[in-house]
Fold:
Amino acid sequence: MVRWLALIALLAGCAPAGSAQEGHGVILLYHHVSDETPPSTSVTPERFEAHLEYLDEHDFEVWPLARLLNATIDGEEAVPDKVVAITFDDAYESVFTEAWPKLRERGWPFAVFVNTDAVDAGHSPYMDWNQLRKLHENGVTIGNHSASHGHLIARQENERESDWEKRVEADIERAASRISEEIGAEPDLFAYPYGEDSSALAEVVGGRHEFALAQRSGAVGEYTDPLSVPRFPMASGFDGMDRFALAVNSRALPVTEAQPTPTGDEVRGPVESLRLKLAEGGYRQAQIACFSGGGERLETRLEEGPPHALNIEVGGGGSTGRNKLNCTAPASDGSGDFYWYSFQWVQTAVRD
Structure:
C-alpha cells in the first residue's frame, strides 16, 4: 500500500491536496470500529475518531447516503466541493457502541447495511433488532445486505441460471421483509455481500433497489453505474491518514464504458486486458496510471479522442477470488486531487 501511495504522489508532483470536487462525492465503508475484531475488517475507535476529525477540520459536509447518490448520479441537486457519506456493512455491535456516539455528537448521518439471518440468529458481535430500531428512529439509514450474506454471484453445483435468479431474489426479498417487519420501513438501498457484484446480479438487485453499493475504491459522479457504486473501504493497514485524505479528496474518473477481454459477467477466468472509454474532464489524460490490486503499475496505452480510450494490459489476469485494478489521474487544476476508477472481477476458474 505504501508503494502504491508513493507512486501516486510522484505522478502528482507531490502537490498538496485541494478541495475542488464539484459534481463528485465519496462514500466511506467501515465494518467494525473496535480494537478486538479482525484487523482486516476493523478500524480502531481512535483511528475512526481521527477520520471524523479530519472531515471536520477540512470543512467536509457529511450527507445522508441517498442524498449523495441522487445528487451525484441523478443530478437532483448541486454537489458542494467536499461531501462524503459514511456507511457500515454487516451491522456489527461496535457501530452502535463506538461509532454512533461519535457521529451523533457531530450530528452526522450514516447508513448501516444489515444481513438479517445473522441478526435473527442472535449471533455475536452483531447488533440486535432493538439496537437497529433505535438507530432507525434516530434517522440512521438501514439498508439491505441480503439475508444470508452469501456469495450471491456464484451458482451452486448444477444450478440453472433461472434457479440461481430465483434463489438470489428470494434471499434479497427475505432480508427486505425482515427489515421492514422489524424497523417499520422497507430498505431502499442495497450493498453487495463481500462487495461482489456482476451485471447478472445487478439485474436481480435492480428489480427492487435503485442503487446498489460495491466495495472498491473510487469516487461517485455522473457516469457512475447506480447498481455498482464504489466505496472506499477502511480497515487496518488501509486506514492511515494519508490514504484517508487521498480518498476523501478524490474525484470520479469519467469512465463511460469498460470492456474486459475476454468478455464476461465479471465472474470469469483471468482478465487479460481492459479497455476504458473516457469522457472529457478536469484530469491530466497523459498522466493516467493504472495499478494492480498488489500495487504493481500496469502497462497502458491512451488513444486520442474524444472520446478517449485507455487500453490496460492486465498481464496474468489475477488469482482465484476477487481481483481489482485501480486507475488514477491527477486533476489538471493543480489541487493535488486525483480522479479515480476501480474495476473488479471475481475469478472462479483459471484457464490452462
